[in-house]
Write a structure and sequence with these properties.
Elements: H1 2-46, H2 55-60, E1 63-70, H3 72-78, E2 82-88, E3 102-107, H4 109-114, E4 120-126, H5 129-137, E5 140-141, E6 148-150, H6 162-166, E7 169-175, E8 178-181, E9 188-191, H7 193-200, H8 206-211, H9 222-231
Parallel strand pairs: 6-7
Antiparallel strand pairs: 1-2, 1-4, 2-3, 3-9, 4-7, 5-9, 7-8
């Protein structure tokens, strides 16, 4: 009888605590959802200014990484230079429509030199399969593990110079409304496993999120995915 009472008490405690657990999960994901929404706003705004990413380059990109509102003040304290997301074209050969996002982190001393005291948005284009595959599985140091360069700007800008043809990742920044190519060599990009767990509610890797066709993108990513799909629906060579 005493054992039955203990069981009832235990089950009551589990049932009472259960709603707390389920209520906590949405709040855990809130910060990541906000990053996705901000990333979508950044991408929409950049794709609607005259002097933005050349169409030719966007059409060749396998993946796009967006780091919204990176703040230098936060970097000094936290040591992490930015939090954002990566979206890739679907399929193992990166030729399908833009798919579900994986969360990423940007780190490194050179980032701090590129930004002043104001918030800065960063955008990276991954220009070949090797860059995309590398970043799906590990931390990547720009200029060392993959070749990197400041990206050209302007929809009709020439993108066939040697520097742009050789670069595996092209990087851009936007601060105070000014959009420009920026060199971030020495900085690193890496999958943010904890942020992905919070966003998707389970332990999952960036590679699983991006390459598995049945991954459902959070609604917070709709603006980001939609902007890319409208602007560059198909991979071109």
């Amino acid at each position: 009888m005493r054992g039955m009472k203990s069981l009832v008490v235990t089950m009551t405690g589990v049932l009472a605590f259960g709603p707390c657990l389920s209520a906590k999960r949405p709040s855990e994901a809130k910060a990541e959802q906000e990053r996705l929404q901000n990333s979508g706003k950044v991408m929409q705004e950049i794709l609607h200014v005259p002097d933005d990413i050349p169409q030719e380059l966007l059409d060749k990109a396998r993946c796009v990484v967006v780091m919204p509102s990176v703040l230098k003040a936060a970097l000094v304290v936290g040591g992490s230079y930015g939090r954002g997301t990566m979206v890739c074209r679907g399929g193992k050969d990166f030729r399908g429509p833009w798919g579900a996002p994986a969360m990423y982190a940007l780190e490194g001393g050179s980032v701090g030199l590129q930004i002043g005291g104001e918030a800065t948005d960063f955008v990276f284009l991954l220009m070949n399969d090797r860059a995309a595959t590398s970043l799906l599985h590990s931390k990547v140091r720009l200029g060392a593990d993959v070749s990197a360069a400041a990206g050209p700007k302007g929809r009709s800008a020439s993108a066939d110079t040697d520097a742009y043809m050789r670069a595996e990742i092209l990087s851009y920044s936007r601060a105070r409304g000014v959009f420009a190519g920026v060199s971030l060599e020495g900085s690193t990009l890496r999958p943010d496993g904890e942020a992905n767990r919070k966003l998707y509610g389970k332990s999952t890797t960036a590679a699983e999120i991006i390459t598995e066709p049945d991954t459902i993108a959070p609604s917070a990513a709709n603006d980001l995915i939609g902007a890319l799909q409208v602007s560059s629906p198909q991979l071109k060579h």
